[in-house]
Design a protein that fits this description.
single chain; mainly alpha; Rossmann fold; two-stranded parallel sheet; two-stranded parallel ribbon; 4 strands; 10% strand
Length: 158
């Protein structure tokens, strides 16, 4: 699957980066413009001819996912799927701690778990992937689930 990639961390305003680098959790108010900008960038890339786009971001709450979820209202060619990457907190703390040159310290993972709203069963656009395994295992599982979801969506539309 070869699609353009938008790394959400690259779109955070300077104030958000400063807060996170100091170990201060972001508030809902800190996230709204950031999420809106990610949605608009994804829609723009699709409007310019891309068949799809992958956006990575910490859409930890349902209302954050809802900001992205409205993208089809701006461009009817857009289908939104979320890939919910999950693992135990200690696994993610270790992975974040191993990153080099990133502004967010591993201590922030705990605050993210504190506000996390795991997707509900009614969020049918969410694909759940356990990321506790190796990178290769996670990639294979995620790609298989994404392909299945896209095929199902195409069948429903035809």
């Amino acid at each position: 699957m070869s699609l353009p990639y938008i790394e959400g961390d690259e779109f955070h305003p300077e104030a958000n980066v400063k807060k996170m680098s100091e170990g201060i959790p972001l508030t809902d108010a800190d996230r709204w413009d950031w999420l809106t900008q990610l949605r608009e960038e994804a829609v723009k890339r699709i409007a310019s001819g891309s068949q799809g786009v992958v956006v990575t971001c910490s859409a930890l709450k349902r209302k954050y996912r809802d900001v992205i979820r409205v993208a089809p209202y701006y461009s009817h060619d857009v289908l939104v799927h979320f890939i919910y990457l999950h693992a135990r907190e200690e696994v993610l703390v270790a992975r974040v701690g191993a990153r080099k040159g990133h502004y967010m310290p591993a201590s922030m993972v705990h605050s993210q778990f504190g506000i996390l709203e795991a997707p509900g069963k009614d969020e049918t656009d969410v694909i759940s992937v356990d990321v506790s395994g190796t990178l290769e295992e996670v990639e294979q599982d995620a790609l298989a689930k994404i392909r299945d979801a896209v095929k199902a969506e195409l069948v429903m539309d035809s």
